């Protein structure tokens, strides 16, 4: 996978926290990187990076394992499908799907759908472990 923009290099970006050991998640993050035309809106960090615990102590390991998070420029947190909905407003290439994601009354449905995929993410595409060892 190509190198992803790092939060330390893009101080004024929205930070995407994702499961770097999840092949499905890594693929989706790579898609987001490509959708970020100009490469300045988003930076990425794996939830397994020690900087996450230091910078975002309010997000527990269980929270981060349950769903992707986006931390916006104002330090607001968006998790799971709410993060996807937030990103649909930030990335112009996602604007065509934004109206569908924001139909009034559908937030609960999107959260349920996201949760169904998230809890099966390792079954969908496996796990990527450095040196064959995954941290728990």
TrEMBL record:
Residues passing through the membrane, by range: 93-114
UniProt cross-references to InterPro entries, sorted A to Z: DCC1-like, DCC1_Trx
Tagged with keyword Transcription regulation: no
Pfam families: DCC1-like
Gene Ontology MF, one: protein-disulfide reductase activity
Protein origin, superkingdom: Bacteria
UniProt keyword list: Membrane, Transmembrane, Transmembrane helix
PANTHER family found in the cross-reference section: OS04G0668800 PROTEIN (PTHR34290:SF2), SI:CH73-390P7.2 (PTHR34290)
UniProt protein name: Thiol-disulfide oxidoreductase
Species annotation: Rubripirellula amarantea
């Amino acid at each position: 996978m190509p190198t992803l923009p790092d939060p330390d290099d893009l101080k004024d970006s929205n930070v995407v926290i994702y499961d770097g050991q999840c092949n499905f998640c890594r693929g989706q993050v790579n898609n987001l990187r490509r959708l970020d035309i100009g490469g300045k809106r988003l930076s990425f960090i794996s939830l397994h990076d020690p900087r996450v615990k230091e910078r975002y102590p309010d997000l527990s390991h269980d929270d981060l394992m349950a769903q992707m998070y986006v931390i916006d420029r104002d330090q607001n947190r968006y998790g799971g499908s709410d993060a996807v909905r937030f990103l649909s407003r930030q990335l112009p290439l996602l604007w065509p799907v934004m109206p569908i994601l924001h139909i009034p009354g559908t937030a609960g449905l999107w959260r349920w759908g996201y949760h169904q995929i998230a809890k099966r993410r390792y079954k969908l595409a496996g796990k990527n472990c450095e040196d064959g060892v995954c941290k728990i």
